[in-house]
Amino acid sequence: MKNICVLGAGYVGLVTGACFADLGNKVICLDIDESKIEALNRGDVPIYEPGLAEVLLRNVRSRRLNFSTSYEDALKTAEFVFIAVGTPSGVDGEADLQYVRMAAKSIAKVMDHPLIIINKSTVPVGTGDWVADIIKKHQEEPIPFWVVSNPEFLREGSAIHDFMNPDRVVLGSLHHEAAEKVAQLHLPLRTTIQITDLRTAEMIKYASNAFLATRISFINEIATICERLGADVKEVAVGMGYDKRIGPAFLDAGLGFGGSCFPKDVRALEHMALIHDAHPQLLRAVLDINRHQRRQVVVKLRQMLGGLNERRVGLLGLSFKPNTDDMREAPAVDIARQLHREGAYVQAYDPVSGEIAARILPDIRLAESVYEVAKDADALVVVTEWNEFRHLDMERIRRNMAGKVLLDGRNIWDPEEMAGLGFVYSGVGRGVNMNSSDREGDLS
Ligand code: UDX
């Protein structure tokens, strides 16, 4: 059992704290937000993440997990301090490090024994060195400490599973011994542990996220070309995925990526490249294609409905992906706002994001079910591929709608089946309009 302090009771901090406690360690999670800590002490979990509440409660009850707003309490017995505070996008896409700076200063002022300080927040390459400088500068007397970078690769919706079953753990430090000690903490996870230097570890996080975002924009560009040429991108992705060098993951064409990581990290990497005189052409294209996917939905709807003014458009799903209520950088936000600007009446249903949506999209009407959204709608758009949308009574939906347009932004339905039910169906990259007899005719 080790004593661990986690700074930041946000998404990454709570999952990290809860999971380390579950592995048998004694953990204190600190946050400067008193209302959040009060809620956690009452047993309320401030974010929607499957399985998190159970792990938190189990470890609070067994007294392995505590919450505090006091640095003195949190650092008193700690050997390891994880920094897991937010790093939002600042101006120009650059990561805003104010919370990391505050955490480093507070550690420096309060620490009274040696500490291993592990940075989990996604920070620009070089931040580990900067954190070490801040701590040195603000310490009243020199007490040894070692900085380690340990980027997180958690996906929202499966964060607990991802923490407990990682593909790898990356640790970067100028002090091999410190990294080795952090490696020991991760041994129960039985996974590959890569120990490298600080800057390389920081870069691994950006490069991994940028690569995954690139795969998504790549398949979305192929989707656009498929639509023009009459090929089906879903089948294309399956065929590509059989090649072991390519693999099947992250090849789902659709409305592109959103969330708290991919857009922010690609922009931050682009910014780092620019200020160091590199030319991040590929990263720019990745972001460009991602924006295009959102704009294209509105263009398609405008064409299919013959204009948007006073049309009723129903959105299915609002969160940036299924199994989360997170709407940060969600395609739904841009799409709903643009439709509203063009005079459409927008109504939407999402299984869990309703409360958040009511705040950030005050102009749209929120419904209690898909069937309510469909009622009298001229068009329906699947924005997020929640599982429940795959098992709907599509005949009933078709009957209740005023129009027939079905825009499947996540390719969850079969185009022919939907056409058979009377919908005017359009997916993303599913160029199935060129019928087979035409193609055979070409050959003869
Ligand atoms: C991501 C990374 O996966 C994780 O390792 C990192 O630490 C944080 O960022 P997350 O943002 O939770 O995790 O979501 P993820 O499941 O990776 O999906 C990201 C976005 O890409 C979603 O908007 C999703 O809809 C989109 N996506 C994903 C696609 O459009 N197509 C795909 O094939 C896969």
Identify the notable features of this structure and list them briefly.
444 residues, Rossmann fold, six-stranded parallel β-sheet, binds uridine-5'-diphosphate-xylopyranose, alpha/beta, 14 strands
Please give a structural write-up:
- The strands form 2 sheets. The chain has an 8-stranded mixed β-sheet, sandwiched between helices. It has a 6-stranded parallel β-sheet with strand order 11-10-9-12-13-14.
- Helix 9 packs across helix 11 and helix 9 packs parallel to helix 12.
- The chain has 444 residues and is an alpha/beta fold.
- The chain has 2 domains: 3-195, NAD(P)-binding Rossmann-like Domain (Rossmann fold, 3-Layer(aba) Sandwich), CATH 3.40.50.720; 210-426, NAD(P)-binding Rossmann-like Domain (Rossmann fold), CATH 3.40.50.720.
- The longest helix has 32 residues, at 198-229.
- The N and C termini lie far apart (74 Å).
- The chain is elongated and about 75 Å long.
- It has 18 helices and 14 strands.
- Residues 434-444 have low confidence and may be disordered.
- The structure holds uridine-5'-diphosphate-xylopyranose (UDX).
- Uridine-5'-diphosphate-xylopyranose is lined by residues 152-156, 209, 212, 216, 250-252, 254, 256-259, 261-262, 320-321.
Describe the structure in brief.
With 444 residues, this protein is of the alpha/beta class. Helix content is 45%, strand content 14%.
